[in-house]
Design goal:
heterodimer; A: mainly alpha; 7 helices; B: mainly alpha; 4% strand; elongated
């Protein structure tokens, strides 16, 4: 506390209460205090701005998510409407109707990027089932045969529509999923036909 | 004609500055700083015994005060409020500096209420040097109670110790000062 009386005066006191309580710091501390106050005010203002922007971004994301859900529903409804009413089975001289499997669209597959469709094992199995499809259908009762052909026609129309849409919007996850599901449906129908035909049953 | 006491005027003036500072007026806060820095720095210096650390503590105390100014109740003394902040900062700095804290005891020492009068007048520098050499706990209590005039309770609250500990430390400080200065402190 030597700077309590830096003037060199040899001050004498009678009580501790007479000791000076105020001691001026050797340098002005205000500049440092002011710099910190101003800096912290700026940080606080920036934080407030960031929080406001974050809130705004969150709100925008919520709106975008809601819009995406609405869009997905709209696409689903559009796909449903455009597929279901267009069942056009083709007539064949032998069976009255025929069903041929469309080739897997390589563009659609590329856009799909799903291992399921480009998987060689799957393609081989599908080709084998397709090859024997006519014969298997011939062995089925007429009503079962008509049902299968109608189902396959619906499935194939769905595939075409979905692949066409995926050509326009290759990264659309909903369309990709719908296309995979459609191929799975086709495989289920083909397998069911073969199993029923082998067992001599109807569908 | 009503005469306004100087202290009242100062408090009013201070209150106005506090209100302005609360609204973000840095210049008003600077005026408060200029008014109180001496006593705050003096307290920090006595508690830390290190001019550089005392400067840090003083700056930190005023920055903390600026941040908490909205919570300051203008009814109470700004000086006391600033001292409380300064004591907290100084204690925290000392802890951070790994200064070994001496053990404190809740045992009541022989407490004699006094005005801290010296048996023989002594030079300020000599007394200050003796105070500086006191152990931390005793020194803190002595500075706040004997020099700054805070009560045992206020001193104990500021330092975060029991009132009994505060009294015991004062008793100890008195004994040590007597030994160092060679005079009775009544």
């Amino acid at each position: 506390m030597n700077n309590a009386n830096d003037n060199g005066e040899r001050k004498v006191v009678n009580s501790l209460r007479d000791l000076p309580t105020a001691v001026q710091p050797p340098r002005d501390l205000w500049a440092g205090i002011e710099a910190r106050i101003v800096a912290e005010a700026r940080i606080a203002a920036a934080d407030a701005g960031t929080r406001k922007r974050a809130g705004s971004n969150l709100s925008r994301l919520r709106w975008m998510a809601a819009a995406a859900v609405v869009a997905a529903l709209a696409v689903g409804m559009w796909v449903g409407r455009s597929v279901l009413p267009t069942i056009r089975p083709t007539t064949s001289p032998g069976t009255g109707t025929t069903a041929t499997l469309p080739n897997i669209n390589n563009d659609g597959a590329a856009a799909l990027q799903a291992a399921y469709i480009v998987d060689p094992k799957y393609r081989k199995q599908r080709e084998a089932l397709a090859k024997s499809l006519e014969a298997k259908l011939a062995s089925l009762p007429p009503d079962s045969r008509a049902k299968v052909i109608s189902s396959l026609a619906t499935i194939h129309k769905s595939m075409q529509d979905l692949e066409a849409e995926l050509g326009k919007d290759p990264s659309n996850a909903l369309l990709q999923e719908l296309l995979v599901n459609t191929y799975q449906d086709e495989m289920r129908v083909l397998t069911t036909v073969h199993e029923a035909s082998d067992a001599g049953e109807g569908i | 004609m009503t005469q306004i006491e100087p202290d009242d005027t100062r408090v009013d003036w201070e209150g106005a500055l506090v209100q302005r500072a609360c609204k973000g007026d840095v210049r008003a806060f600077e005026r408060l700083y200029r008014e109180h820095v001496g006593r705050v720095y003096g307290l920090c210096l006595r508690m830390t015994r290190d001019p550089a650390m005392a400067e840090d503590c003083t700056q930190e105390a005023f920055i903390n005060a600026w941040k908490a100014l909205a919570r300051f109740e203008t009814r109470s003394s700004l000086a006391t409020w600033l001292h409380r902040i300064a004591v907290n900062v100084a204690l925290a700095k000392r802890r951070k500096a790994s200064v070994v804290l001496e053990s404190t005891s809740d045992d009541d020492g022989e407490v004699i209420e006094s005005d801290w009068t010296l048996e023989t007048p002594l030079e300020v520098n000599e007394i200050e040097a003796a105070i500086e050499r006191l152990p931390e706990g005793a020194r803190d209590v002595l500075v706040l109670h004997a020099l700054y005039g805070y009560s045992h309770l206020e001193t104990a609250e500021m330092l975060g110790v029991a009132e009994g500990t505060c009294k015991a430390q004062l008793h100890r400080a008195r004994s040590l000062l007597r030994d160092k200065l060679g005079v009775e402190v009544r």
